[in-house]
UniProtKB/TrEMBL annotation:
Keywords per UniProt: Isomerase
GO MF assignments: isomerase activity
NCBIfam families found in the cross-reference section: OMA_tautomer (NF033377)
Organism this protein belongs to: Streptomyces poriferorum
Protein name: 4-oxalomesaconate tautomerase
Length: 356
């Protein structure tokens, strides 16, 4: 049997996730062929992903596909693909704000963007949602620098900061048109500020909201309630049948314990995130500012400024989030969102997929 051809690949940690980054030109253009190849590269389906790059968890079984932008409003285009671990599934139904942190550096490394002095800004179109983001990071001497003093929870050590700014989205912040709904007997707030998310007070499910992720995952009754809420929220949020998708995310809210704004436990969709995704945090932060939402009685919003600290199982994420109040009777709108993340190049070379 002829050995499979190698594929050019760069592995980067982006935020609190890790993923394989590819140029679109290095993968098959036909989605089915591309996805079949990525399953072989990542080692899926296999709970250990022992025969591929995947790390046996959704946070380490991710792919970023990058290409030059075809429009004038962005420099590059980024497609995020979530590769199943134990299932032969590749989904483009959601975005990933963590891998987004590595897109700008990757674009410079691959020559898609020319570095601009000591700092480079890369305008990115996120193909999963059509949204835009701008990533700014240091490029002294015309090369990407991954060394710095920025620290983020969930990642050991420090690295160079990647500042990601998001302009207000064109879609509604409240996709259901209402600040509250009752789904599966639970009061929820459905928001979308880059990631479709359902906010639920942990107490409404009989939880403190401070449980460890593994405790929550081991509770079959809770997992059933989470699934009920997701299935009911999908059509209301314009997502259709979400039985086989990873969105919307469910974020449980509890009062902060460490001086932040709120404590969270987020499901992706049934595994409990050990931290929180960037775009998920953006949606949570905006949702906390919605008058009448479920976060109103849980969060401790600052008296001044836009910066919120979202606590999660392994620390916190600081995010600047503004919500613009509409005119009388008009729904609220998301304003500017910005977050500091880090990224690090782990390897650059050729990956050899297992035989078909």
């Amino acid at each position: 049997m002829t050995a499979p051809a190698g594929v050019r690949c760069m592995l980067l940690r982006g935020g609190t996730s890790k993923g394989a980054y590819f140029l679109a030109e290095d993968l098959p253009a036909e989605p089915d062929l591309r996805d079949a190849l990525l399953l072989r590269i990542m080692g899926s389906p296999d709970a250990r992903q022992i025969d591929g790059l995947g790390g046996a968890h959704p946070l380490t079984s991710k792919v970023a596909v990058v290409r030059p932008s075809v429009g004038p409003d962005a420099d590059v285009e980024y497609l995020f693909l979530q590769v199943g671990v134990g299932a032969a599934e590749v989904s483009d139904r959601q975005n990933c704000g963590n891998l987004l942190a590595g897109v700008g550096p990757f674009a410079v490394e691959r020559g898609l963007v020319t570095p601009g002095g000591t700092e480079t800004s890369v305008r990115i179109r996120m193909l999963n949602t059509g949204g835009l983001a701008t990533a700014a990071f240091p490029t002294p001497d015309g090369r990407v620098s991954y060394e710095g003093a920025a620290e983020i929870s969930g990642v050991p050590g420090a690295a160079a900061p990647v500042v990601i700014g998001f302009p207000p989205g064109s879609g509604p912040l409240l996709p259901t048109g209402s600040a509250r709904h009752t789904l599966a007997g639970i009061s929820v707030t459905c928001v979308d500020n880059g990631m479709p998310t359902v906010l639920v007070a942990a107490s409404a499910l009989g939880l403190t909201g401070y449980e460890r992720p593994e405790e929550l995952e081991a509770d079959p009754a809770l997992m059933g309630r989470i699934r009920e809420i997701r299935l009911a929220a999908g059509p209301l949020m314009g997502l259709g049948d979400v039985a086989d998708t990873t969105v919307p995310k469910i974020s449980l809210l509890a009062p902060p314990r460490h001086g932040g704004t709120v404590s969270t436990r987020t499901f992706i969709p049934v595994r409990c995130h050990t931290s929180i995704g960037v775009l998920g945090a953006a949606s949570v932060a905006a949702g906390l500012r919605v008058a009448g939402g479920v976060g109103e009685s849980v969060a401790r919003l600052p008296a001044h400024g836009d910066r919120l600290r979202i606590e999660h199982p392994t620390g916190f994420l600081d995010i600047e989030s503004a919500v613009e109040r509409g005119a009388a009777g008009a729904p609220p709108r998301a304003g500017r969102t910005a977050v500091v993340r880090t990224a690090r190049k782990i390897f650059d070379g050729t990956v050899f997929p297992r035989p078909a």
